[in-house]
UniProtKB/TrEMBL annotation:
Protein name: Putative Thiol-disulfide oxidoreductase resA
InterPro entries in the cross-refs: AhpC/TSA, Thioredoxin-like_sf, Thioredoxin_CS, Thioredoxin_domain, Thioredoxin_ResA/DsbE_sf
Organism: Nitrospina gracilis (strain 3/211)
The Thioredoxin domain, residue ranges: 44-185
Segments passing through the bilayer: 12-31
PANTHER family: THIOL:DISULFIDE INTERCHANGE PROTEIN DSBE
GO CC aspect terms: cell envelope
A Gene Ontology BP annotation from the UniProt entry: cytochrome complex assembly
Keyword field: Cytochrome c-type biogenesis, Disulfide bond, Membrane, Redox-active center, Transmembrane, Transmembrane helix
Length: 187
């Protein structure tokens, strides 16, 4: 005896398809309305609190990120051997010069193994912003989960990452400067 499936008209399936599409639309819209909540996360990302750290500086002493709460902080991971880092450094210096006395700090974190190369590099490119040292990449790789250099995190006054950039940028464009201006003016 042969079993034959009875064919149903397509119109029978339309209500089910419409119901599934409506439920999917409602679910996606509900997700859109959930505001991001700043909290510590395993993977630093925009809308999350920036992970804390403490590192030695090129000039001696230590700097802790928590000391800059209440300021906008530009965190940049870089190295002297990185060609694209050299490209973005002059624009970083322009941002630092414009905002350093206005509730803004730039913390550049060198991952160079040979720390003797850093000061000559800073002098060659006329860079005056603070340099922190992470030669074993403990903060870069384990805490900030960087994939290479340069990699930058812009942190709001409340400690939340508002922008993450992988690769070099021209930080001194008109739009970027306006964004930094807005961040430092926020209370």
């Amino acid at each position: 005896m042969e079993h034959v499936l009875e064919k149903k008209p397509v119109s029978v399936y339309i209500p089910y398809s419409l119901l599934a599409a409506a439920l999917l639309f409602i679910f996606v819209k509900a997700l859109d309305n959930v505001p991001p909540k700043p909290f510590e996360t395993e993977y630093p990302a925009e809308a999350f609190l920036a992970p804390g750290f403490e590192l030695p500086t090129l000039n001696g002493g230590k700097i802790s990120l928590k000391d800059y709460r209440g300021k906008v902080v530009f965190i940049n991971f870089w190295a002297t051997w990185c060609a694209t880092c050299k490209v973005e450094m002059p624009s970083m210096q322009k941002v630092y010069d414009k905002f350093k006395d206005r509730g803004f700090e730039m913390l550049t974190i060198s991952v160079d193994k040979d720390q003797k190369l850093i000061q000559p590099f800073m002098e060659e490119y006329n860079l005056t912003f603070p340099v922190l040292l992470d030669p074993d990449e403990e903060i870069a790789k384990q805490v900030y989960k960087t994939t290479g250099v340069p990699e930058t995190f812009i942190v709001s006054k409340s400690g939340v990452i508002v922008h993450k950039a992988i690769g070099p940028r021209d930080w001194a464009t008109e739009d970027a400067m306006a964004a930094f201006q807005q961040l430092v003016e926020q209370s």
